[in-house]
Please model this.
Amino acid sequence: MANQAFPRPQLTGQPVSQKTTVEPKTRPLPLMPSSSGEVADRLFGFAMLTCAVAILGLLVLIVYELVGRSQLSWHAFGWKFFAGRDWNPVEEHFGALPFIYGTLVSSLLALIIAVPLAVGVAVFTTEMCPKWLRGPLSFTTELLAAIPSVIYGLWAIFVLVPLLRQYVQPFLARTLGWTGLFEGPPYGIGMLAAGIILAIMIVPIISSITREVLMVVPQHQREGVLALGATRWEMIRIGVLRNARAGILGGVILGLGRALGETMAVTMVIGNRPEIARSLFAPGYTMASVIANEFSEATGDVYLSALIEIGLALFLVTIVVNALARLMVWSVTRGLPARAHV
Amino acid sequence: MGVTIHVENLNAWYGKVQALHDINLKFEPNHATALIGPSGCGKSTFIRCLNRMHETIPEARVKGRVRIGELDAYNGTSATQLRRRVGMVFQKPNPFPSMSIYDNVASGLKLNGVRNRKQLDEVVERSLNASALWDEVKDQLHKQSGAGLSGGQQQRLCIARALAVEPEVLLMDEPCSALDPISTGKIEELIFQLKEQYTIVIVTHNMQQAARVAEFTGFFLLGKVIEFDKTEKIFTNPSNKRTEDYITGRFG
Model:
């Protein structure tokens, strides 16, 4: 037997005499001597498990509270709560649809504006930017993420909204008014302003994640495309963006998550009227905004309960949107068994 | 058909570091030429100058004249034009992982604006046949990603991809260094067949490989061509002492 010919080295801490008397067949496997290290390892594992479980517990607790405290409203309106367009605190009649609509539309608008911009910034910084500009440019982009949202709101009120009112909205109404999306009086304040300010707020996160993803696309992929006689744009399209699309989608999801929950800046410019209008010039309302605005003045029990149910709805919308986005990432990466080779 | 490559007074730099010094070489059409030399001697830099890949590196510069057949590579020819005539296979197999095998091979043609399905089908089959991969992948052309193949198959896929655009020259930068001996053997066999139609320049660290596949061999050292001659002559009776030292394994 190999074991006898080349005996394993004796482990320290075990009496040699005892080892030699044991028959090879029954000899215990040479395990690590049990030490304080093993106990510490187990403790560490347990501590980490506790951390992980705590997060899950927190989530469950939040759902439990949201569901529990929205019972009153649930019993009063049932499923109709999510389909109702009426928000009347005086008659205590509540429907969440305008808020769900406002949240989804403002976030979608933000994505439509922010994604091309953010991806463009990322492509420029990784592929075309002269070296000396790269650092300052990415730093500035990331700095945008550090600005408190109330500052964005203020800036929007004093700069963006007048700009929209005087120039952008009249122009849009003239050129694209026939779509129905850009009609009505140009207040400045409204869904469009909210979408734009959200877009500015989510550009940093999308572009910084996209940049990270683009940077890990291996150089040999770029060279492979170039060697076929591709132009720079073709190289970026085929060799870079195509390889990085799952990661870019991931960045977009994170941006979307932020847009769905953003409260302050949106509240300051969206107009805060619970209505569903086709035109983006019209004021709207989002779920996060209505909770922030009306929570302190919600006098009736049903009113309060309805607001909490809106919170629950926001929670669910976020989960559903994230799940859909994950599904999208999955469907993009599916059929690529060898991601490791990239 | 392959074309002759003339290189005259070629110099190349990375920033301030000069990587190539006054290279003058001529590559015969429909022959394979091997470039050998220790790491960092400039042989990879040199073949990357032949299809202008060198200049894609920031701060890299080239001076001199390269003629690919009647094309003057650095004078009046765009890099994209040139690269469509001069195919390249890299050290590490680099199929496009997000594309199927078929799309990998067709990618060069699609870049050229070919959309005709029938024509694409033909070229894909011909190229995969030429790179001796057709029989292994013909049933999964559209199903499998290019990155799902084995390393040797990936490299042959990359060769097919390069051949699909019908280049006149095929540059190979250590095409077998990431492959096992069996895959290496297949690629070498392939080089043997391909040189009937293309001018092949192959950089290799493996001197046996150079001896097996190439009619001509150039020995590079510190950015200069030390010796360039028939492969037989280089390996049996080199005229330069440093060549002899290198191929007998005294350094490098």
